[in-house]
Amino acid sequence: MSAYANDTIPVFAGPSLWGWRAQPPFVRHPPAAAGDLLRLLGGEPCSVVLIDGLFDARRSVWHKEILLLLARGFRVVGAASMGALRAAELAPFGMIGSGSIFEAFASGRISGDDEVAVVHAPAEFGAAPLSLAQVDVRAVLVRSVRNGLIDAASARLLRGASAQIHYRDRTWIGVLAAGEQMGLRLDHFAAWLATHDFSQKANDARTALDLALELAVEPPMARPEPPITDFIRIAARRVAVDLDRP
Questions:
Q1: Measuring CA to CA, which residue among 109, 78, 58, 63 is closest to residue 13?
Q2: 187/190 Cα distance (integer angstroms)
Q3: Does the global pTM surpass 0.90?
Q4: DSSP output for 114-164
Q5: In the chain, is it the N or the C terminus that has fewer CB atoms within a 10 Å radius of its CB?
Q6: Could you give the residue ranges of the DSSP H alpha helices within the chain?
């Protein structure tokens, strides 16, 4: 096994870290799809941060490629979006979750990819989010209730209306319109929202970066290697990685 490298932290991120410019030791990669994490096996083990991932245009990042990284000396931190989902599923096997979205998935308070799914611009245009994640709707509504801008019953109705909007079409304009159709009085909330919008995904993503930077000083503990199937070998060959390389 190669020596652990503490001077490089690959970060797979898109809309959750829109506008973030990676500075060493971070190296930014586009949202991960199936096979993208396998490519890292061609280099030295290091800490990796999985934030955003694809699931529509390409297959989602596989659980087994994360397990292979963990077994071969990598540390994998997940948060905010696809990273939070995979971390909740693989925490028993050594993946590290960070942030309240991860905690909500891990505890079962929320479930389903649609909670974190958004449409976003291509990577060459900064991967800017073009729709609104349901987890961010939840977070903003909690803050608005605490600040007295909306009552809890109205917030629950608005959260339910938001959940009925397809993730590709969900925006605050559409959510507010749905609430008004239900007869909710949202003038004060809408005015507050114009200057107090908040992204839990962005907050969790930045927290994960801080955690990865803190942990990267020391190599992670060894993890057992998962079975190497023919399927994963074919996938590795497609990204030019030899799984039998020591």
A1: 78
A2: 5
A3: yes
A4: GGT---B--GGGTT-B-S--HHHHHHHHHHHHHTTSS-HHHHHHHHHHHHT
A5: C
A6: 63-71, 82-90, 100-107, 134-146, 152-163, 172-181, 187-196, 200-215, 230-238
Give the burial class of 137: count Cβ atoms within 10 A of its Cβ; 0-12 exposed, 13-18 middle, 19 or more buried. Answer: buried
The answer to whether the CB of 190 falls within 8 A of the CB of 178 is no
The string of pLDDT tens digits covering residues 148-184 is: 999 999 999 999 999 999 999 999 999 999 999 999 9
Q: Which residue has 């909740």 as its token pair?
A: 88
**Residue-level pLDDT at 244:** 82
Are 47 and 212 spatial neighbours (Cβ–Cβ below 8 Å)? yes
The torsion angles phi and psi of 39, rounded to 5 degrees, stand at -60, -30
CA nearest neighbour of 78 among 110, 57, 101, 60: 101
Amino acid at 103: E
pLDDT value, residue 6 = 92
Q: Are 36 and 29 in contact (CB under 8 A)?
A: yes
Radius of gyration of the chain (CA): 19
Structure token digits, residue 186 = 């949202």
Alpha-carbon span 77 to 9, nearest angstrom:
10
> Is the distance from CB of 158 to CB of 141 less than 8 angstroms?
yes
At residue 181, what is the residue type? Q
Report the SS3 class of residue 13. Answer: coil
Structure tokens at 172: 């605050």
* Both tokens assigned to 77: 């931190």
How high is the pLDDT of residue 246?
61
Single-letter residue type at 237: R
